[in-house]
Design goal:
The protein is of the alpha/beta class. Helix content is 32%, strand content 16%. It has 4 helices and 5 strands. Strands 2-1-3-4-5 form a 5-stranded parallel beta sheet, with helices on both faces. The longest helix is centred in the last third of the chain and has 18 residues. The protein is globular, with a radius of gyration of 16 Å. The relative contact order is 0.19.
C-alpha cells in the first residue's frame, strides 16, 4: 500500500484564527520554561520536546506548584507552558496568577479542547496550542510568546 507523503507540519493556530509566525532557528534563544501539567506522561513528553529544542525545563504537577515555585523564586523562568484542564486551578488562572507575581511572563496554554474560543477569557498575549502538537509547533509557540512579551515589556531608561 502506497500513500502520498504528508506535507510538512504547518504552524499551529494561535487562537481566533491567526497563524503563529514561523521563527528561524537562528533567532531562537534557549529559555528556562516552567511547565505545568497534571498528567505525568503528558508532562514528561512535553518536557522532553522542550529539552530537545535546547530549553531548560522546570516541571510542576499543577497550578499550586507553579505559584509556589514563582513565589519562592520569581526569576526561575522566562516562560510558562500550562495545560488548560487541571484540577483546582485552570491553566488560564495559572497564567493570570503567575503574571501577578511576575508581570510580563510569556504564557502558553496547551489544550486538548477542539474549540480554542472556549478559552477566550485568557490573559492578553497568551498563546493557545492545541494538542496534539509537534515539537516544532511547541518550540515555535514558545518563541512567539517570548517575542510578544519582549516587545511589550517596559524598557529601562539609561542616562548618559
Amino acid at each position: 500500500l502506497w500513500l502520498p507523503r504528508a506535507p510538512d507540519a504547518q504552524p499551529s493556530k494561535a487562537g481566533k484564527g491567526e497563524a503563529t509566525p514561523v521563527i528561524d532557528d537562528a533567532d531562537r534563544p534557549k529559555l528556562r520554561i516552567l511547565l505545568a501539567d497534571d498528567h505525568p506522561g503528558v508532562r514528561a513528553t512535553t518536557a522532553a520536546m522542550l529539552q530537545d529544542a535546547g530549553h531548560d525545563v522546570v516541571q510542576a504537577s499543577g497550578g499550586a506548584e507553579v505559584l509556589a515555585i514563582l513565589e519562592e523564586r520569581s526569576d526561575c523562568c522566562r516562560g510558562l507552558v500550562s495545560d488548560y484542564a487541571m484540577p483546582a486551578i485552570s491553566g488560564v488562572e495559572v497564567v493570570r496568577r503567575a503574571r501577578a507575581l511576575r508581570p510580563g511572563l510569556p504564557g502558553i496554554i496547551i489544550t486538548g479542547y477542539a474549540d480554542t474560543d472556549s478559552i477566550a477569557n485568557r490573559p492578553a498575549d497568551t498563546i493557545v496550542l492545541a494538542k496534539p502538537f509537534t515539537p516544532d509547533q511547541l518550540n515555535n509557540a514558545v518563541h512567539v510568546a517570548y517575542r510578544r512579551m519582549e516587545r511589550t515589556a517596559p524598557r529601562a531608561v539609561v542616562n548618559g
